[in-house]
Amino acid sequence: MTKLAIRGGTPVRTKGFPRWPVWSEAEIQALTEVVKSGVWGIDGERVPAFEKTFAAYQEAKHGILVNSGTTALEIALKAAGIGPGDEVIVPAYTFVATASAVLNVGAIVRFVDIDPETYNIDPTKLEKAITIRTKAILPVDFSGRPADYDAILEIARVHDLLVIEDSAQGWGAEWRGKKVGALGLAGIFSFQSSKNITSGEGGILLTNDDEFAALARSYMNCGRVEGGLWYEHHYIGGNYRMTEFQAAVLQVQYDRYEPMLKKRQENAHYLDEKLSKVRGIRIMRSDPRITSHAYHLYIFRYNSDEFGGLSKKKFVEALQAEGIPASGGYGYPLHKQPLFQKRAFGRKGTSVDVGVDYKKVRLPVAEKACAEEAIWLDQETLLSEKSDMDDIVEAIVKIQQNTEVLL
Ligand SMILES: Cc1ncc(COP(=O)(O)O)c(C=O)c1O
Fold first, then answer.
1. Residue 282, class by beta-carbon neighbours within 10 Å (0-12 exposed, 13-18 middle, 19+ buried)?
2. CB-based pocket (< 6 A), ligand 1
3. How many A from CA of 295 to the centre of ligand 1?
């Protein structure tokens, strides 16, 4: 019997996985050029150029760069006319920004459970969450995997709802051969530090709608309008602008993106093939309608019953000890966060009765994913070689064969 690393044995892997961010002299040169140009902010050419580049890449008509994905979500909701009293449907398994953006425009969050085999919003549970106050569906392309847009867009059409995509993790993701981001009214992407294209912080909002784009751009830039004077303000906007430094870095990151995306996809498919043969591990469902998965995360599902009842927490610790940088992801879904349990939506975090008691909300799939099932590997782990993927599989099998010492 091989001794587990967590019990003092030799780890399957002592060599690290690739680090993130990936950068080179190209970023330094791009940043130096911005410094030397003396144009660091709004009058620069790099922000508008990257807006065009990224919008074209995601097959959208307009791109509006902002200072974060969170900001992009808030601006999108505002420009969609969503405000106090409106309800927005959000999956329970996502980063807090998807829901806090809704709260920040004064609207109410209605959580819907996720599909156990995709971890994206479960369209079969969507209609039950619609009320007369529902204005929009905010699906998330979680991990870079497009949500089920056939079902979501159809439900939205039937109930006259807007669709705003949280594609914070979806650069290059495709649904039926069409890039995500502007499948509905609008979509957003994040360029925060952990993201597959990054400028440390940053985000973009995409849309095909001219009027929506003009309004969103105005919200981003202090309520200014195209053709207006500098000190002329038409709407309650803010300063959510991106700098030339960020846009310069984004261009370089984007230039090396496509081969990296391919590599992540190849390694993820290889892992799928190998892990599907490991007892107690379930891979996410394959779906031919997903013609490109961005793999911000590689997710697989852990079944502790097949590991002698070993908890997810202990499994992850054992895996990390074997040199595999896995994590259990979110500790709990959004409806279980203190923010929602306490409904701390009022001034200074006081509780507000919004007509939904999140303490009573039960979303078993999202709850199980957090507590028992979901295991994440970060995107940079997928930037290594196939033999490195074999180490991941070997470490899981090693734990599987030695669980009794951990129980
Ligand atoms: C699903 C999701 N939505 C929204 C965001 C917010 O993006 P940002 O961190 O750029 O504000 C993130 C980023 O972590 C995310 O993963």
1. middle
2. 68-70, 94-95, 97-98, 140, 166, 168-169, 190, 192, 203
3. 15
Provide CB contacts within 8 A for 36, sequence distance 6+: none
Give the pLDDT score at 158: 98
Cβ neighbours around 90 below 10 Å, total: 26
Q: What is the pLDDT of residues 347-378, one digit of tens each?
A: 999 999 999 999 999 999 999 999 999 999 99
Q: Is the pLDDT of residue 123 over 80?
A: yes
d(CA 132, CA 150): 23
Predicted confidence at residue 239, as pLDDT, reads 98
DSSP string, 64-133: EEES-HHHHHHHHHHHTT--TT-EEEEESSS-HHHHHHHHHTT-EEEEEPBPTTT-SB-GGGTGGG--TT
Q: Enumerate residues 6+ apart whose C-beta is below 8 A from 259.
A: none
Do 165 and 294 contact (CB within 8 A), yes or no? no
Q: Which 8-state DSSP code applies to residue 221? A: B
**In testing the pocket of ligand 1, which one of 66, 141, 190 has its CB within 8 Å of the most ligand atoms?**
190
pLDDT of residue 46: 98
- The partner residues of 376 in beta bridges, in order of sequence, read 299, 327
The whole-number pLDDT of residue 331 equals: 97
* pLDDT confidence bin for 1, thresholds 50/70/90: low
- Which residues make Cβ contacts (< 8 Å) with residue 347, sequence separation at least 6? none
Which one of 68, 164, 188, 192 would you pick to mutate in the ligand 1 pocket, going by the greatest count of ligand atoms within 8 A of its CB? 192
